[in-house]
User: Fold these one by one.
Assistant:
Number 1:
Amino acid sequence: MASAHGAAASPALSPAASTAMAAIMDSSKPLDTAAFDAMCDAMESPGSPAGTTAREVLEAFRQHPDAWRRVDGILDRCRSDLARVVAAGVLEDAIMLRWETLGRPEQESVRNFISGKIIKLSSDPAEAKREEVFLTKLDVLLVGVLKQDWPHRWPSFIDEMNSSSRAMGEGVCANNMRILRLLSEEVFDLGSGVVADLTSDRRQKLQASLSSELKKIFNLIAFVAASSTSVGTLTETLRALQKYLSWVPASLVLETDLVATLTAKFLPAPAFRTITLDCLTEVVGAEGSEDARWAPRIMEMFGGVMATMARVIPPGADIPGTVRSAKARGSQAEPILVHRLTLFLSGIFRRHLRCLEGSEALRPMVLQGLAYLLGAIRVDDKDLCKLVAEFWRDFSRDLFDTAAAAVSRAGGPSAALAAFTAATGGADAAKGASADAALHGAMAAHPRVMNYSRLLSELRLVGTELMPKPEEVLVEKDASGDVVRSFTRDTDALALYDVMREMMVYLTHLDPADTDGIIVAKLSRQVDGSEWSWERLNALCWAAGSVSGTMSEEHEKRFLITVIRDLLHLVTLRPGKNNKAVVASNIMYVVGQYPRFLSSHWKFLKTVVYKLFEFMHERHEGVQDMACDTFLKLAQRCSSCFVALQPRESRTFVEELVSNVDTIIADLEPHQVQAFFEA
């Protein structure tokens, strides 16, 4: 890429640097690559005179507008890694900043040099492996040129990729797949900004151009998938395919045999299993994939995936244990596979569950797929847990909406409530509605709900064991194992709590007796000590509080009295400051979630309030804060009970409170006293 005219003037340099710079930019002579390497080597001694001069020269070279003309000599003959980094940076600047100032011959010179270098390196497998980082950088630079020139100045690019992939061997083919993947990422993933930013208009034109070439690209991918035997080439091909599947219309994929190839050829092979699941996940989520004409393809895909995965992860396998064991021995293969399978299953069930349920042959596989997701939610991975919890919330809401709407259409019990909650589809609407026992029974008898009854019961159990901490709870276990006041707000845990709370609301509406039975049974095991632990008790009580308003009034009364009775019993059974703080925080959280019950049962409310006053004397800041906050919440939600004269009482509770206020607040801090008086 030598210039036919003189170099532009360099910035002011020291005499030594000026001489060196003039030699580098002298286009009448070949570049002295040994001297350039020596200059880069001198950068290892930045404090020396030679290092200072080298830094000055290299910085000036990077900024020189004609430096790109000397890059070919550096990349072809220099041995220094730094020299190649500098040269690649100069090319990047030429493409990103100066491209439109170059003449057409100069642009083609840069393009041809990069293309030729890529083909030379990728043709030799040993060289390509040794120069993998450098080759990837060249690929990125070529994509930068494409973003500037394709298709108007390089219309034959896709055809050239086709021909070279078929004629030049596995290495070139694999690298071409990488270039196609990078191009899709830059054009449809809003780009990485590495080489050249795109205007909105330019991006739209590139997207249209790439879309118009999809047939050729997919034919090339199909050719490589069918003919290649190289693991590396096939992996790059599947990675490229996954990027294109993320934006192509479903019809382009589902009208071909591509899905069958993925499920039959690539999914059973361990080397390709995770990337194949990525591809299939994109297919089931593609726009238009819900069209009824593609139902046979979707069902065939699901059947193939489940048949293969049953051999890899047998039904009934301990998925959390498998992931835990793999991480303990330093393996990431199993955790990654579980994550990819979770993405696929949640994706296909979200969009195509009704279609899959319609096939009697696939119903056992649907149940097995849902069982995998039940296992996945228990994996110790916050991101995975949130992903699966969101699926289960939506799954539960879909069953609730279906059952409630069916009851409404049939004119069954509480049809108006069913129609309202089905129309809103909101957990708060469902939670706030006046629950009706007959409605619950009718919804539980719906065929879809009955089909999943066992699975839904297991899901309720998951909710009682994994419920995250809600915002109202102000105590936590610290690193030393003590229960202390929590001062930080865990936004991730709160977001997960909201998701799982909604899930439990829908599940309890579908069968409140099952939720009641699970919570009461597990709480009795806390009392008898067989499952006693702070973590288990916390999750159980947070779940109990989350289902407020989902049971009929009479059912809620029995349920809450049982829960509070057992928790009060635990206060006496588990002495010690930390134990009492944990149990007290749970009592306060649960009672704060049931204002409807407390408003209707004055004696119980009064007992609860006096228990709060007792907790206000605990020498634990978190317990005292929660006691004051809970009292404030009850005062806001049950205010009429406190100011009205209750049966068999000689004065209102407010009067009684005023007469004892000094004793009640004796151990409170100023901010807690403020909350008390606000109440």
Note: Confidence is low (pLDDT under 50) at residues 2-10, 191-196, 418-425, 429-435.
Number 2:
Amino acid sequence: IVKYTARASTWEGAIRRMRRALFESHLYGVKNNIPFLLNVLSHKDFLRGVFDLNFLENNPQLMETTTVPHDIKNPASFRTSHRKFDELEGYLKYISNLVVNGHPASLGADPSALHALNKVDVPPPDIDAIKNILKSRDQNLSAPKFRHILRQEGAVAMASAVRKHNRLLFTDTTWRDAHQSLLATRMRTTDMLKAAEATNIAYAGANDVFSLEMWGGATFDVSMRFLHECPWRRLEELREKVPDVCFQMLFRGANAVGYTSYPDNVVYAFCKQAYESGIDVFRIFDSLNYIPNMELGIKAANASGGVVEAAICYTGDVTNTDPNYKYNLKYYIDYAKELIALGTHILAIKDMAGLLTPRGAKMLVTALRIKFPDVPIHLHTHDTAGMGVSTMIAGAEAGADIVDGAIDGMSGLSSQPCLGALVSGVGPEKTNLSLDALQVLNEYWESVRHQYRPFEVAELSSAVGSNVYMHEIPGGQYTNLLFQSRQLGLSGRFGEVKKAYAIANKLMGDIPKVTPSSKVVGDLAQSILSLKLTEEEIIMNASTLPLPQSVVDYFQGGLGTPPGGFPEPLRTNVLRGRVLADGRTCFEGRPGSELPPYDFDAAETQLKEAFGTARITFRDVLSHALYPNVFKEWMAFERQYGAVQRLPTHVFLRPMELGDEYFVTLGIGQDHFIRLAHIDKYDDNTGTRAVTLEVDGERWFIRTPDDVTPLQQMAGGEGGKKRNEKCDPTDKGSLGCPMPGVVVDVYCEVGDIVEEGQTLFKLSAMKMETEIKAPIAGTVKKVGVEAGESVEGDDILAQIEA
């Protein structure tokens, strides 16, 4: 029993002292009533001294629990769990888990590179240096501030101001597409926040910066899935630090920031919240250039009040003069006409793979400028073939108003062209953006990129090049494909992956490739390699092959209709024996139009019951609506380890070694020295290790589950599960696993009579689900796996006897 007594000359003073004493209490291993007492001390009636013996009965909410950390300055945050959530303890558990188990393979970090990371945090850019550079410039920055125009006068007025601007405008993609293309989207919010104030000063001091592309695309789910962060918090914290520059996001039309279709009210609610949280410009695209999907996205963004930048997804070669060529100049002009009719404010050319040449840019931009003289044109490309800077300058000379680039240290290869090179290339008469100020920012990003070296793919520099004009892999997909190819045992053979990708694109009907359509093509390419199939074999045997579910969904119209329609006879063969949940063969029209409205109220109630009323906001409900499983896993992680986004990147990524000491700043007055003092041997009885950490000289003993040692013991023959039996490739009824993964569902039992092509298993592998079908008709004689079991390639799933 612990007793606290607080005294003061006033009631309010006594409450403050008691609150402080309770707040600073550290009790571990036992439940206590501190959260309840803090709740009482924060109640308005108790603060006024107006209460009686029925106080608790009349205020049952005092017993509510959440996992929100305490904030001594905010009494409303005192309604906490039955044990006070100690933020530091959660971080120490995370550090200990990293020491014992390392990162999961799904993170994609190279373990050997992790230990080579610096042990200190990267300091922010030199703000004073930027201010001095801008002070020394003798020029009149008289152009309007675009964000101010948008928020005061509206999107139409802002678009008009862009069109009237007499110099070239730039969008910096460093905070989104650059790290998505180079580092698998693994950039953490903390590293952007450190650069935010300096970036705002550098870019607000030049009126030729249009926007910062910093949100949307893959950043939304990766924030929760791998970085354990809130994507909304990223947006709002950066917005607070950068009040003067437009924020731009990438929006997948009817797919929002996901990989599937969502109910219309989810898309509208997302855009409304994004605008309120700080997004100004919505770059909207559809992965198939499918107008019905674009229409939903454009209407939703327009309703939010933001600027609609509708994107033409560029593919092929617009300069091709073949009269039968699909992606000719007429195709793009007609598509642009439809987008403008839907209400776009700015027209974007989104060259996802870097296929647009200077000649093509000149032809396309010139034609669009003549046809639509009052609509701003925004040009985006990737530097995959090394032609990005030339393409951007050619497009600008042809009439583009805005071009995309990335800060020097985050540019090139599969990322965007170098922003500094673009500024130098167009010259001071075309831009007032300071190259010297850019270099101050670049010094920071060069150091930050080193901290993300574990996500650099060594093969990337040799994988990119002019062969992109043949395989057309988008810049943002390279790192994922290289990682997946390693999982398939194809290290050093990325040339085979690129060839398979080109075959897959042809099989799909030669389509625009950007998320989610690019993922479909990539999934099929991986299947081609893992199953060792030819183009002809896929077409002829599509009805029985274990095709990825994303490929089946595509042919069922789950993404819409591709330009020129679906290829035959492949589509017919894929759909044979495969039906939608309602029994139909495929969708008719826009897939999401058939979905019922999402019940936000019911979802909010459910989430608050699960995670606490004070923890769940409407932004969380939106995250759950888009990624229900990912959101729940992130919340479970946060409950265990806390809000790890506050940890410096070297602490978050690099597992400590014995004797290592980190200096960690978690906030004002929250500086700690953390040293790894000892790691106990593996305890066979508990399956754990005790990790000893010294925090400011005080020893903490963290009992940590060891998930690695049991696997090593099994691999070394010290017990554990035996390796699965392999299938017999000479026996048609021996059904083997096509690739490594996890069995999601088993739809058969021994003795079942099955038909050829009947779905027997569902496998999850490399972020895609695949249905495994019966190769022949007959009786199931053996089922070799269970749901939830990890399997390797060629492991026997079932034995069927004809």
Note: Residues 435-451 form the longest helix (17 residues).
Number 3:
Amino acid sequence: RSEAKGKPSQSLSFFRFKMRTVSLTQLLSTCVDASHQGCKIIRAFQEKGYGEGKLKEEGDVRSVLTQADLDAQAKIIGSLRGTWGSELNIIGEEDEGESIPTFDGKLLNVNLLDDTSLQDEELSLDEISLFVDPLDGTREFVEGRLENVASLIGIARHNKTLAGVVGLPFAQDPEAEIVIHYGVADQKDSAGTWPVLKEKDITVDDKVVTVFTGDSKDDILRNATSCALNLAENTRHVIVGGTASKFQQLLSVPNSVAVLHFKTQLWDTCASESIINSLGGKVTDLFGSPLVHSPQRSFGNIFAVVASSGDKEASELHDKLCAQMRADTKAVHKVFGKWMGSSEPTTPQAVDAIRNLDGIPLSTQEIEDFVLEGRQGSLKGYSAPESGAWRGMMSNGGRLLLEWENNEDGKLPSSVFYKRIVMADLAHSRNKLTTAPHKLLRDVKSYQVETSFLTSRACQEGLIKGAGLKINKVFGSDLRPVASTLGAKEQLQSKFSILLDDFNSDDGWEHQWLLDETAAKASIAEFAKMHAYFWEGSNFWKMEGGQLAEELEAAVWENGGYMQPSLQGFEQYEIVAKGFEGRLPTFEEELKQIPELKDVDLVSIGKRLESLVAQAGRESHPFKADKATSDEFKRYRTLIHGDPKQANIFFRKSSQGDYEVGFIDFQWTGFGLAATEIAHHFSAAYLPSTLSYDGSKEMELLDYYYSCLKKELVRFGAASSEKDVEERVFPREVLQAQYEIALLDICRMVFAYAWRRWKAETEPTAASLNRNAYNKSTESALWLITRCHVLLQKFEAKS
């Protein structure tokens, strides 16, 4: 990198030709310079009066093309390639047959942004593409509305906007004739101008939300505009020409939203999106899905575009508008019908979540190819009801209802479930990049574990066919993990999707918000089957000479479980007391009324637990601990689900009135202790009425689990008889001891971390279904604290 100010030397350019990486700030600096040169060409044409143009699309005035477009692009692309070399991938709006890149030998300036606070990084050339719109707003240029004209250069990496510049050739600013705006999408408040301008005071009525649109006559866009104006209390409508010009309004007008038409192209949006993102705003398509800036994409933003400033009111309006458009079934059918099939849906559709990993809606042909698996059938279409959609912190997706041409015998599934993880699109994952990068690496592996386990023979031939558990089958998957040897920032680009068999309510399957006693017993009976099937020494380990066991070992976590300390971070050991004391005021008055806590120093509970958590973590998750601990517990080793909360369990009543049980979500599946899983299950999934402060109901449930487990251990060859279980394989007192230390380990996780998301719910809601009992039920939290104290007393008495 050149240390000298001013223009880079010719040797820098020569070496860049030989290199595979470029500096972000230097590349962005040259884009500023290139855009400035493009702006000068545009100004020169306007000053000479050369504003005539021709239509690229007959009858569409928006497609007007002038010589200024062609010459500006030739200069921009030519100078960028001349500076960085031909390996730099650049996609321009105009056909390079008409706009041949020109380079006068004068290299672009790499130092224009040296005095800014931009964070630099090296970019691999094969990961980035530049999108160039040399003259955005050509119609406005021809018609003399010069304030709406811009010259755009966007930098995309991994098909997402990374950085960009927006050149304003007619800035109408007293400080500069030409102003270049720039920004880096993931660097907050990195947006700036070159040359640097004085900040201007903006007087705005913050009670009004401004909606910027063009003058399109498209019915869907007109309806979208009407919706936007009606969804907020106080709105105003302003018509603005030019794509970049609408985006620029969001930078200067707080509480603003822009709606753009279905014909914007990737070069129209890439640059401006990065600047809006850097200022806290967001850009999606009209239905709420992130934009995709891929050089392989043969079409533009065909799902239209919505953008909003970073203000709360504008952001809320953005989300409400996208939801309203997903509820516009006519619009959904018109836009998405070619993928979803011929029938117009009758309910709101989750068309933002049902996309493949390239951002394109799933097609009937894709689904048919996965689901039929050689069987006869023809998929007429599908719907993706909003009621079956899932938008979580770690994944998106939803239920697809399938309409088959011929399915009289009912052998083809009426629905499937689609799970999609594009980590760079998930705010929770992006936040982890800076706050907990080790968890980002963990999450990438968890998605691989889930698919590897569900498609393994151990699951399909063993657990489902052999043990009889109901687990959703994988119809198809698309896995694009980044190599585990690379860092967290690279792994953020990992993507996964899975098409799964569905536990559909039409087939009688349902969730419980928290489990009643009947459901609790049904679930632990199924866990007993799973634990026994994979128990150390069971028949499974001998199948096919141990080959299935080897495949399973390679597929899952060495020590599974979402709460496993090495997956959560050992720093939790040091903040248990602090976390408990911070949340204690929420429960303090109720805790004082519990007999088991009479005269107890409540504040001390967190400190007492913190002194024990290292031991609890080691003994509850021994197969990630030292070898001696692992060897000590190996005789009790089995496979655990890893996240046995109620949201991952479905129930269906049989004709006899008992429950069938189905399991989903195997991201944290791996080896562990059965007692650790049961402790997690009790604390996360049960209604408070299922448990008791004195531990008596726990004891009854543990006894029931043990009775089920004994039978299954005999059934699957891990023991010769139930007496053998009681005396040798897994005595009841061992289960009790392992359960008690595991419950304390769960308190570590809850006190130190999970209670940051505490939100009391007085009644069941769909929105809180996925949250654990200790994070939504006050009675459940009180039970956990009480049991923590009682068990601590027991351990303290022993020591």
Note: Residues 586 and 778 are 9 Å apart (CA to CA).
Number 4:
Amino acid sequence: NRQQQQQQQQSGSGGGSGTATPGGAAGGGTGGGEGEGHGNNSEAYGSGSGHGYEQHQQFATSRGIIDSTQLERDRREKERLELRDIVGKNLTVLSQLEGVDIETYSENVLPRVLEQIVNCRDDVAQPYLMIALAQAFPSEYHLATCDDFLSAVCSLKPTVQMSAIFTSLSERLSSYLDEPDLSEEEKTTRRAEFDEKNCVKIFLNRAQEIANENREMSALEIVQIYSSIADFALRQYPNDVNKMNEVLLGVAKAFDAHNVTSEDETRLSMSPQRYIRDQRAVSALVKLLAIPLETFTVDVALSLHAFPKALKLLNPETAGRDCALAIVRGVLKSEKPLSDVKTVETLFKFIAPLLRDSDNKSYEMTDLNTESPMKGSGDLLDALSLREERRGKTRGNINNKKSSDGDEGHEENAQFAEEQMDVAKLLHKIHCPNDWDSQLHLLKLAKVTLFSGGEKRMRFTLPALCYSSMRFAKELLSERELEERKQHPPAKMSDEDAAAAGKLMEEDKPKRTLEELEIFEKHLQTTLKKTLQITHQSAERFSEIPGCAERGLVAWSEAGMFADSAKLSDISYEFFERAFETFDEKLSSDSRAQNRGLTYLIGALQTCVHLEEENRDALVHHCATFANRLLRRADQCAAAANCAHLFWSLKSTAIRDSEGVKKCLNKALKIANQAARALGVSPGESLGLYAHVLNKHLYFFEIETCKAVDVETVQHLLDAIREMIQSGSSEHGGTAAWRDAEAYFGKIKLDIKNKRKIQNETTGGSSVGENAERSIGGDESSRSSSSGSSQFASERYRRLNL
């Protein structure tokens, strides 16, 4: 009824501007002031404010009516929404009255409207009216009255959602600067007015006042208010670190222990240790703490002194992990590497919940045994260290020590695995190529930190540390190669190499003297050995973790290959010895893992050409011995055939033993014959073994200087396999193993036929392979050698009867 009466009054007095909205009381005032002069603007403001007050009361009262039937409640809700629209339009019309300038708004309009909003005392009406007020009037009006507006927010009902009001006002203030079609002069003037007002400081002061005085506000609401202020500050001051620091300091003060009483702990969902327990508030705070990492560089974001104060509000065992994960992912998004020691130290402090358990003391850290290469960065490192002599102690104690993270059979859930994989990725961001001492120091710091995390975490993180250290070692070797190229440039270079060398001489430091070169080489050798020591310790600790022996063997083998490429034969031999030790002790109960591990070891050892002859012979003997110990005959046959590659290297003429190759191939053929007569081997599997042995023979058959395989041996194998297929196809041809083996043999024959065609080169024709080889290019000697080898293989293949 009051709504209908209001509409009748509006229709009776609407002779002015003719506003068609139900909130036309303000429109009537406009008409009187504009048209006939039967009043003044002050009366219009009063009339509009008076009608607005009645509408505010109607809007608030309509929410309190609860009827018994659902239909009646729906009708009332519809009326309330319509009335809310009327109130909003009334404020819009009020803002459009002639003569409502900033002074009039701040002295007459705003105080009356705010008084009505504060007095309505409704949870939904108050925030809606404040947001409507912020949207109705121009942004420059709010810039002048920002403090008064937020002062009224402090007086609202305690249960009102105030974060939405902060967000709405901040958007209106931002629009003052972001308004399109502004000239450069206008933009400069507005920016000066905005900076002079210091709105961010006003927002922070009022937010602090609300947090201190409003004893009914939830933890989520407090965090959301400061998140709104952070968005506002970064939108207008994207490069101002101090603004973000003030926001984080404000949220820390809002939950400060001095301001939180025992009664407030329940209201704010805080534990007695002053940790926030409300999961929604925790998630909001984690997002707030991630903002500086996504906005600024990593070192700048982590240097905020308020960051750890806000971080203390999170329980490190639960919410602290979420925040640490947000920090790690923020760092991963950044393109800048972690090259500063102090930054990495601070980062490891912040992400400690991901690196170790709070009660984890499984690893002693007392002295890093290395001075910090950068001044002022040794505060944390003075208390951290790893005993370098741990290697001798670990072997006897590791099997007797129970992991602090749980039983050995503990299965990692997907979330934990994802978190630790992100930590592993973080290690690859640690990169300081121009400062060897700092890079080595960072790797040692990472080693100490990761070793304290327990086996549950190290199964994910230690491989990354191992390969990061090898990457740094490879960079050291590249530095040595560049220096050698500068000292002794090659006599003949291609145009591209010459251009690259010239550019290197221009950009790099000048050529070193003999004395400087000696110092450089000594420093490089020392750094390289210390880096490989980190690799050794990481691979050792990783291979001792239950369930990680096979991956540890791969890490040992990779390190051995790299040490050999660096011509560090003793270190390479040590790595391979540890790999075979891991194979013998940790993989003895898993035949499949043994087969995979031995295959990888043979492949890794095959690439090594700088090992001393005695050491290499010992490692080759290990491979042959372990090949005989494999459980399945098929695995023994394949491993024996693979061992033949250890006696013939294409990289070094010193490792070419035809007799050794022949012995391995004969051993493989003997095992294949035994498997054909064994009860546990199917005919199809036996046929596949013969095809595999034939394929290995053909590899050495093509090498002109290798006398291990002749035409008669290959022909004998071909005839034997053909005879097996002819006699067994009718009986065993339906099995999958037989079909696969027969297809394998068919591909071998097809390859032989294709290689026979190379003979056409001498008569003017050329095969597809030869055309491709010529298109690649290269010097004449390599093409001649390749052509000669192909012709030799072609001649031998033509002597075979397929």
Note: The radius of gyration is 40 Å.
